[in-house]
Amino acid sequence: MPKYTQPRKTWQYSTEFKVKAVQLSLIQGVQVQEVATALDIRPFMLSRWRKEYREGKIVADKRKKLTESNRKQAKELSKVKRLEEENKKLKQEIDLLKKWQRFLAEEHQHDIDSSRDSDKN
User: Fold this and answer.
1) Whether 83 contacts 42, CB under 8 Å
2) How much is the pTM?
3) pLDDT in tens for each of the 121 residues of the chain?
4) Which of 15, 53, 64, 110 could form a disulfide with 22 if both were Cys (CB 3.0 to 4.6 A apart)?
5) Strand, coil or helix: what is 28?
6) How many domains are there within the chain?
7) How far apart are the C-alpha atoms of 49 and 19, rounded to whole Å?
8) Is residue 33 included in any domain, yes or no?
9) Residue 78 is assigned to a structural domain of this protein
């Protein structure tokens, strides 16, 4: 067995190449093995790219991926802000109800005290 003096070369494939390979493998009647052989890549690598493509990790246009990510992030932030405002409003309502409950309790206690005073006379 020959001894390697230099490390193996790792090939870097562009996103466009990966997307084209995935799209070719998604054509009905075409097998992953056939596409991998035609592109001189391993079938496992193509299968991994297909998975990443389904998960949205590989996108044909990187700007699109960033824009979608930014849109999702902005949507989440607006949702959090809306929920924080709603939470603040609910806390104010609870405080108001507690004050009303205290007022009613004091009024009720005042009525009880007044009736006792009138009974003594």
Assistant:
1) no
2) 0.45
3) 456 666 666 678 888 899 999 999 988 888 999 999 999 999 999 999 999 988 888 877 655 655 666 677 778 888 999 999 999 999 999 999 999 999 999 999 988 888 777 766 6
4) 53
5) coil
6) 1
7) 8
8) yes
9) no
Residue 19 covered by a domain: yes
- Tell me the residue range of the domain where 53 lies: 12-60
CA 79/CA 118 separation, integer angstroms: 58
| Three-state SS annotation for 36-98 | HHHHCCCHHHHHHHHHHHHHCCCCCCHHHHHHHHHHHHHHHHHHHHHHHHHHHHHHHHHHHHH
CA dihedral 46, 50, 55, 60 (to 10 degrees): 90
> Is residue 92 domain-resident?
no
